[in-house]
Write a structure and sequence with these properties.
Elements lengths: L4 E8 L2 E6 L3 E6 L13 E7 L2 E6 L1 H5 L12 E6 L3 E6 L1 E8 L4 E2 L8 E9 L2 E8 L1 H5 L3
Parallel strand pairs: 2-11, 5-7
Antiparallel strand pairs: 1-2, 1-8, 3-6, 4-5, 6-7, 9-10, 10-11
């Protein structure tokens, strides 16, 4: 069906976010992350992903999201399919869902990382989900 996009929805702090499934290679549990001296604040470190070095970024730093109340058992790394090995650390992956055009709102005034706003139901409540532009998120990582 034309006009349908698929996104991975996830939580950062108390907010809901999404990225296109086309930008996702895989989702893995958080493993040992090695800190890198003098790395930018949003780079949490590097992780060995089956023999490949994967840079882990913390989108909460870039998006200025409060990082209180983190359940480490639910945290995941979303490994991105962007031509280099980069992953984003999220508090919880919620679902993979279709997004219809009538669920989308313009997000140009919400900053450089925002692609659109998705209106959708999560846990029987209508939530506003910020659809992130992955290319802009990983620039400079």
């Amino acid at each position: 069906m034309a006009g349908i996009d698929k996104v991975v929805k996830f939580k950062l702090g108390n907010g809901y976010f999404a990225i296109s499934v086309n930008d996702v290679k895989e989702v893995v549990k958080v493993q040992n992350i090695t800190r890198i001296p003098n790395a930018p604040p949003h780079v949490e470190g590097i992780m060995d992903l089956r023999g490949e070095v994967c840079t882990i970024i913390d989108p909460k730093v870039l998006l200025n999201v409060d990082s209180s109340e983190v359940n480490e058992d639910k945290q995941r790394i979303i490994v991105l399919d962007v031509g280099k090995s980069v992953g984003i650390k999220v508090d919880e992956v919620i679902s993979v869902d279709d997004v219809l055009p009538d669920q989308l709102e313009d997000a140009t005034e919400l900053g450089e990382y925002a692609k659109a706003i998705i209106k959708d139901r999560i846990n029987d409540r209508v939530e506003l989900i910020l659809w992130l532009d992955v290319e802009k998120l990983v620039q400079g990582s």
